[in-house]
Amino acid sequence: MPAVPACLLDAVWSEFEPLLPSHPRVCPTHPLHCHRPRIPDRLIFEKIVEAAVHGSGYERIAVPGCSDRTIRRRLAEWARLGIARKVHAAALAAYDRMIGLEVADLTGDGCITKAPCGGDKAGPSPVDRRKQGMKRSVGTDGGGVPLGIVSAGANRHDSPLLDPTIGEIHQQVGDLPAHPRMHLDSGYDGQPVRTVLAAHGMVGEIAPKGERTPIQIGKCWVGERTHAWMNGYGKLRRCTDKNGAIVDFYLYLTAAFVTVRALIRQARTLYRWDSRSTTRRLK
């Protein structure tokens, strides 16, 4: 049974597979011409998705025909090539073409998760007795579709990560409309953030510090909901990888699944296709 619905797995794989480097099934340089066949990329992809969803170690998801070392090697190769980032960009392009990204209203927010093994993107968490943790800064459109992601140590404040997050949004989406609104919570209330927004031609809708604001005011809750969607994947709630490239690989792979899920749910009432679900539950 797949870790995610088949409609999500097949859709992401259809964009993932063309980006993979080509390799012969059997190594042609083996002196005896009896090298073991290469494990199929689809099997490795499914194992990586299982690790992302369940947050389990690679030893636990390994099978007799696919060892944990093979999973680690293939994961490191794909992370080095930046394939997950490209798949997420393709998912955003499909969403924009079929539904339309709400880029006139953007949100930015940060989230702290656990990183017990430390690594490139870990730091002492200010909310977990200085245990190792990771800060994830995500920029979304008005509907909560993740556009740009930046990872850092948990001891980093949200406001310095806003500028690279906006840069990631430009890289993944392209040009934005003139003077889009950026909705931020009170943690971003300060002159440095306003300077960053002005440099990018954005209008800041920032909740003021010291004032109790109902959750319904503004669109900050959209970014918080996106973090909740992404925290449904165990590898993001408790990241055990130390390599920063692999951490970013899982972040963008998860963002691609979140984007495709939102696309299918929005398109279900607008389009018809053979495998279209008649209910909101994906299969």
Report on this model:
- It is a single chain.
- This protein has 283 residues and is of the alpha/beta class.
- Strands 1, 2, 3, 4, 5 and 6 form a six-stranded mixed β-sheet that branches.
- The radius of gyration is 20 Å and the shape is globular.
- The chain contains ten helices and six strands.
- The protein has helices at residues 6-16, 41-54, 58-61, 68-81, 83-98, 162-173, 191-199, 220-230, 234-237, 244-267, and strands spanning 105-114, 123-124, 132-140, 146-153, 181-184, 203-206.
Could you provide a short overview of the structure?
By secondary structure, this protein is α/β, with parallel strands linked by helices.
Q: Topology of this protein?
A:
Blueprint lengths: L5 H11 L24 H14 L3 H4 L6 H14 L1 H16 L6 E10 L8 E2 L7 E9 L5 E8 L8 H12 L7 E4 L6 H9 L3 E4 L13 H11 L3 H4 L6 H24 L16
Parallel strand pairs: 1-5, 5-6
Antiparallel strand pairs: 1-3, 2-3, 3-4
Helix pairs in contact: 1-10, 2-4, 4-10, 5-10
